[in-house]
Structure prediction request, 408 residues.
Amino acid sequence: MASFHGVEPGEIVKAKVIEELSPPSSNRNYLKAGCETWDCAWDPNGSYFAWSCGSRIVKIVPWNPAKNTTVTRDVHDHEGKPLTHQGFTIDAGELVWALSFGSAVADMKPHTVNLNFRRFHFSHDLILATGLHSGRIRIWDVNSGKLMVELLDHKSVIRDLRFAPNGSLVLASASRDGTVKFWDMNDDGNMSKTLRGNSDWIYNLAWSPDAKTIATVGNSRSVLLWDVTTYRQIRKFDGHHHDVVSVDFSPDGALMATASYDTRVIVWDPHTGDIIFVFGHLFPSPSPIFAGGANGNYVRGVSFSHDGTHIASVCDDGYTRFWRITNEKVPEQILPVANALCCTFSPDGSVLTVGDRDGRVNFMSAPMQVERLQHLCRMSLRRLVPSSKVDKLFIPLRLKEFLKYRDN
Prediction:
C-alpha cells in the first residue's frame, strides 16, 4: 500500500520550511512522554504564536506577519517601523494539551465583598487559555505573563480550547471526561453550559465562523454539530471508521473538514450532512475493518486555510500535506515531518505550523494564489446562505451546484 495515489513523493512539489522552533534544552531532562507539542495557536492578528513544547512549558513567540518570521529575526514591519511586542515563557505547572488566544484586559476594581476579586473587562489586550492534564484551565495575561484566573470543573485532560470567533470571549473546552463546557469571560469566567455527546473522550472542537454552531469529535467515530443558542444537537455525521480527532470549518462556514485515524480527511456540508470530498492518506483505500484498526496511517490533524481552497493535514506516515479542494487524489504540496501531532494555519493563511512529538514546531510557507472571481463570489455568498437555501435561489442550476461546492 502507498501513501499517495498513482505518484511517488518525489513527483509532488515540496513545501518550503521558513522557520523551525525547538523546545528549551532543559525540557530534554524530562521523560520523553512529556515532551510533545500537542497544540499550537495564533493570536487573531497573527502577531503572536504559542506552542506547548512539553514539560509544562508554553512559549509565546512574537511574530512579524509582514515578513513571515519571528521578531527576533526581523524587527521591522513592511513600512520599516520597529515592532515592540515581546515574547515570554509560561510554566503552567503541568502538561499542557490545548491553547487558545483571546482578547482581554483586567481591571482590579472590586465588585464583591472579596477585595482581591478581579472583575474582567475585556477589550484590546490579549489573553491565552491553557488546557492542562488535570482538567484545569488557566488564563494568562499575554502582556504581563501573569496568571489571571483558573477555571475548574472538568474531571480529566483538556484536549481542546477555542474562543468564539465573534469576539464575545466565550471559551469552549473539550475534555477526556466526555464533556464540552462553555465559559463566559465577560462574566468572570463562570461556566454557562455543559454538553455531553456520545463519546467517552472529546478530542477536538471547532466554532463555525458565525459562532452559531460548534462541532465536536471524539472516539465514537461520529461528528456532532450543536446549536450554541439552544445547546441542542443539530446533526450527527457518520462516515468515519475510526476515532475522529480533528475538525475545522472553512472560512465561509459552507464546509467542515474532519480528520480520523481511519486514514482519511472527510469534507462535509455541515448544513445537509452530505460528504463533499474525501482525501485519502493510504492507497488503495483500506477496508473499513483495516481502517478501524492499527493501520499505520492515522491522520492526526486538519486545518482549513483562510483562502477557503486549501486544507492541510498531518499523518503518521511522516508527511504533511497541502490539499486543494478541487483535487482529492494528489496533494498540491507535501513535506516530510516525522511524528507530527497538530497543524494550524496563520490567520492570513500564508503559514502553516506543525507540532511534533519532540516539542518542535515547523513553520511552512503555504500555497497561495489569486483565486478565481467565481470562488470569491461563492465564499461571499455562502457566508450568508446555507445549503438548504441555495436550491431556492432564482439562479441557473449549474451555479447552484457550484455554490454547494459540487462542481469544481
Notes: The helical segments are 288-291, 373-382, 387-390, 397-403.
